[in-house]
Amino acid sequence: MSDAARDEKTKRRAMLIRAGVYIFATHFFAGFVILLFALGNRH
């Protein structure tokens, strides 16, 4: 495998990991905000 192909594969893997982390963090934050609204609406 050439260096260029290996570099592209590494960049693609890093991009997918970064996208996964961003998606997880966004959903975690949205869930936290929804939890705050649910707890604030209980009284």
TrEMBL record:
<keyword id="KW-0472">Membrane</keyword>
<protein>
    <recommendedName>
        <fullName>Small hydrophobic protein</fullName>
    </recommendedName>
</protein>
<dbReference type="InterPro" id="IPR046129">
    <property type="entry name" value="DUF6126"/>
</dbReference>
<keyword id="KW-0812">Transmembrane</keyword>
<feature type="transmembrane region" description="Helical">
    <location>
        <begin position="21"/>
        <end position="40"/>
    </location>
</feature>
<dbReference type="Pfam" id="PF19621">
    <property type="entry name" value="DUF6126"/>
</dbReference>
<keyword id="KW-1133">Transmembrane helix</keyword>
